[in-house]
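Reopening this one. Same input as before:
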Amino acid sequence: MNDVPGRPRSERPPRRRPSALAERWTTIDGVKVFYRESPEPPDAKTMIHLHGFGLSGRYLLPTAERLQDDFHTFVPDLPGFGRSGKASALGVPDLAHAAARFLDDRQVTSATLVGNSMGCPVICEFASAYPERIERAVLVSPAGGLHNQPLKRAVRQLAHDGLREPARMLSVAVPDYLRFGVPSTFRMFRALTQYPSLERLLELHVPTLVVIGDLDPLMPSPERVHEVAAQTDSHVLLVVLEGAAHAINFSHPGELANIIRLFMADEPIVDDPNSPGTARVTEIHRGVHHPPPKNPEPR
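Same output, byte for byte:
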């Protein structure tokens, strides 16, 4: 019965660590959608976090929860993923439309979108289709380009990444992947490989933060990413988090939340003193149209 389009897989609270965000349900275009929401801080901007391929929003919570006091925060399971109901279509434009309809449902006119992996091309498509509704974009470990083709290569990259992520990520990712299923995996991968991610990224006309980990096997080297980003007069700020792999929102939430706060305030990107460890933040590219830091570091 859970395979009926629009019907949620389960509205029963799962046995897992309770989120600091409220867990709620709504219906979008006939599909039951599960989402998490923070209280709305006074005068706070809205921020929506979009998950990656085959996953739910659950692994984004460590970062999203750290930002809930700064932004009105939403973390949905997009239709077809996680605890939300199955969708009749799985494609990047479909998911971007679903994100816009989710904002409609929540009576939000515009927001900053934060994505990981597949969530990044979804944000790029959202910005192309609804340019007036996106204030800023945060793209963490963008996926879906030539570097992830063909499918066998992507599977190997995912396997290598699994060895570099925290062991506790397995308890989050495995149930999500099993629930998503093999047929959906092939359909979604085909949609990602057909989507012009790089072209859409470089077309963004809002301040855009790209965060990559230097241990991420799904990404080209930071040097190659910088080379590509420097080919156009973009709005992109490119930051490398050394010591991180692909699921940065889960593995390095303190560092990532700090980077996002600084980006949103147009402050220089520096390490988070409250997140000690081996990870180190390095800004390697700032597009000519990206806002300059309000308080640049003294030289």
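So the earlier flakiness isn't reproducible anymore. For the record, Confidence is low (pLDDT under 50) at residues 1-5.
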